[in-house]
């Protein structure tokens, strides 16, 4: 399943804009894009830009003053940035997907361990380190998973004492971590700018029309939102939770979960699910003009909310939580609830909106 997932997501993201059926007329508010942009997109992007900027600053302080307290501060800012990213990550269309920005921030799934292999190789080399040079390299070296290894992986303690000037030592390691943080903050700024009011994408999303690109109607905007929410639910379940859960308890492998080293797997997933909830609300799928749509929207939120609560209640580190019976049961329940939410979204809610989303390679898995 995981090996096929990236191809499946690609097929989903490349789907053409949804068709609009006559029985959905009036179910989509004309201001759907403006509501989502103002109520969700702009605040989420601003928070990501702010937290990633603070992280970049914390890395510079750490490199200039290696100390356990500064390392701990950078680790805290890392987790805050991952949380902010979790909310932004559901916007998997437009500026976030252009120029590989999503993968440059978050190269996942990584079933072959490319990030670990490349990061360790880079740390052991003498290649130049800067945000500018990093942006031209493999996406696996550029983003948050790579920075997690720098801050939490084997040898991270050298960041707190400044030991070593090369290889796995603190000086080169810190310079690399600072370059990653600067790179992520720069990408966050790019995305926010491309979504800014008055920009071409923002205008098309908030005021679609026959001559606009890429959105010619409110229904096409609604289709993009539904597709983004569905992609987020599938990605969270299939790429982030199920590979670590395994098919049976003996096959659990917590180290296959994202951000297990920083013990922030469930912090990320909770942020992603909370973002889907907010996206659905702001789109008018819960308290909008059509009560049938609202009913399906509330059903979705019920399932997502229960999944999120189950994951937030897990007290163990992800490395162990997926195999411990009590918490494994909670995680399993969450994956079932997310599957239910996805079917409600792609089936009943999309149909009530008059959207024909088309099939993709994930359907039926």
From TrEMBL:
Per UniProt, residues of the Imelysin-like domain are 42-339
Q: Cellular location of this protein?
A: Cell envelope
Signal peptide (UniProt feature, chain positions): 1-21
GO CC: one term?
cell envelope
Q: Which UniProt keywords apply?
A: Signal
InterPro entries hit by this protein: Imelysin-like, Imelysin-like_IPPA, Imelysin_sf
According to UniProt, the name of this protein is Imelysin-like domain-containing protein
Organism, by scientific name, is: Nitratireductor pacificus pht-3B
- Phylogenetic placement of the source organism: Bacteria, Pseudomonadati, Pseudomonadota, Alphaproteobacteria, Hyphomicrobiales
